[in-house]
């Protein structure tokens, strides 16, 4: 039985479709992708009507900042900062303090910094190395190489990669397996700075480290101000068609999950080389959001939870399990899509991988642009790095148990992912069935009864929580009487439930401290009905004052919250304890103490918010919609028992 193309779609397609059109009826899987995609497009573009696939940015990109060091090196000068890594030396750039007036939020940086951009951490995956696991670098050189520009982003398709002037004009390509290092000026091997490693999101379908929303200068500056200086590293990994080949041939060749192997190799490179920059290889924290958050789960669970000592702590923002990962048992269901690509490229032979290595990127690009709705180019169980489904890995305890972990989700994740245009339980159940987020056969009478009782038909109690009661406004002409309820269910199933379950399981069996938080702020460019949705916390974590699609903005409440959140993140990266800056009196009076998560006790988590009217971040029990999330996680893992659930009266004040 060939399974639906869109099995993984809602979460992932939502993150990867660039264009959108709205359906007026109950969305088909494809249409529901489009709705979610529209929402994301809205959050990531000021002007969605101007968005569209950029068919130019694998080629000319005259004004792009990420032209890289391979073909377009900026000449090296004797004044440049230089580091000597294992293979040879690199010259970086000096970043003068950034003027406050140059930014939307009205602050800049105080200290001079140095950055080394576009440094390859692997052999570039071109020609015969395309569709291969990444190969370690094996050459050295004597001269000083230029590391002064972000490399091209790994080719992908989706909102972050679209051409959306004036913000996004990134060059995409294959010579992308690079990383960037940003540090306070004048460090040496004795500095031993803690290292903040950022792994971007984008549904494993798009995105890249050169994205200005991931500009590390401002968090590095804050770390200096707090007396806990750190080094920022961001990296690219292959995404979409080139990063996650599917089907039997890829499975047999062992070339699935390439993007995850890229990340892993980058972490090895960091361990081998970061001391040369003044970093401490034993103080590496990996941080990621969305697909980057899911990547945090993959690394915690990698190789059955083996501790390779690549990181000493983890921050997972809006991580997800998504739907059950494909396994060797059903990889054949993806053969049709792979064959479609091969045929388009004129690769009729039975070694399509071999043939596809020799076609121009342009050919793969043209096919990929038209086939984003498939959203199938994603991680699978490969029996190697990915030993099993993520939820199963957590449930059976196959994860690294020695590292502190912070897990954050946003209050209204579901607003980004709920299927819209639904009016009642039956509509929601159909949408769940079509999403294939739950295993076959989940929708028994008992399960449906529990779902309807635990998530009652009452729009007043669901996200977006700060938008008052009642129906959500129509989205693109579609008005559903149960859209908020749908957003709650989809958000809990895909993001909030997995976050809570992973937090509980980590807290119960890890030897290290586990911390949880929830981001409640409606950000500057979000309408109140979009809530504190997916991705919104990123600008606050980065304390990024630049004008972007998700800008922090100029309001004092947002700047105060950014200073607060970034201080807890920096403290955690610097010391493994998010409270260090607060304990040292570096934060304002009344700055909260962030307790460890006790799954069988208080279940305390931080809710991040500054409303400008005196309402500030607070500690709160992580118990809202408890029965609902337990139900959804039980349904997902196939362990639902009706007797575990009784009718629950969801109330707004559970928050
Ligand atoms: C929900 O109701 C709206 C109008 O009230 C209608 O347009 C829409 O088709 C309904 N949705 C479904 C799935 O029937
Ligand atoms: C959005 O883009 C369209 C077409 O490119 C343009 O006409 C319009 O002025 C833009 N609107 C804004 C608010 O920038
Ligand atoms: C792509 O390039 C063509 C020709 O160079 C140009 O006409 C078109 O406007 C460009 N499109 C975008 C989105 O930049
Ligand atoms: C590139 O930048 C120059 C100078 O700002 C501008 O004149 C030109 O139109 C830009 N080109 C594109 C394709 O955006
Ligand atoms: C090049 O660097 C890589 C990554 O650190 C290292 O594993 C490899 O041994 C180096 N090779 C040479 C020849 O320097
Ligand atoms: C420099 O740091 C001080 C606090 O130490 C801060 O008040 C000021 O805004 C910072 N300047 C910039 C440009 O960020
Ligand atoms: C480096 O590895 C590539 C294949 O991955 C190989 O073709 C090349 O010969 C190697 N170079 C050296 C210097 O070992
Ligand atoms: C961050 O953005 C500022 C302003 O555009 C720029 O000067 C700086 O070089 C950027 N920092 C990094 C690390 O890219
Ligand atoms: C594949 O199917 C076999 C036979 O049904 C089953 O025993 C095995 O657990 C399945 N493997 C995975 C990874 O699902
Ligand atoms: C293609 O498959 C056939 C039989 O299935 C086999 O005989 C042949 O060697 C294969 N060719 C290649 C290039 O793998
Ligand atoms: C992509 O779709 C467009 C519009 O339907 C079509 O003109 C074009 O030929 C398609 N390209 C590929 C590679 O399928």
UniProtKB/TrEMBL annotation:
Signal peptide bounds: 1-25
SUPFAM superfamilies (alphabetical): alpha/beta-Hydrolases (SSF53474)
Any Pfam family hit: COesterase
InterPro entries xrefs: AB_hydrolase_fold (IPR029058), AChE-related_enzymes (IPR050654), CarbesteraseB (IPR002018), Carboxylesterase_B_AS (IPR019826)
The keyword Signal is assigned to this record: yes
Molecular function as annotated in GO: carboxylic ester hydrolase activity
Family to which the UniProt record says this protein belongs: Belongs to the type-B carboxylesterase/lipase family.
Name the UniProt record assigns to this protein: Carboxylic ester hydrolase
Source organism per UniProt: Pseudozyma antarctica
Biological classification of the source: Eukaryota, Fungi, Dikarya, Basidiomycota, Ustilaginomycotina
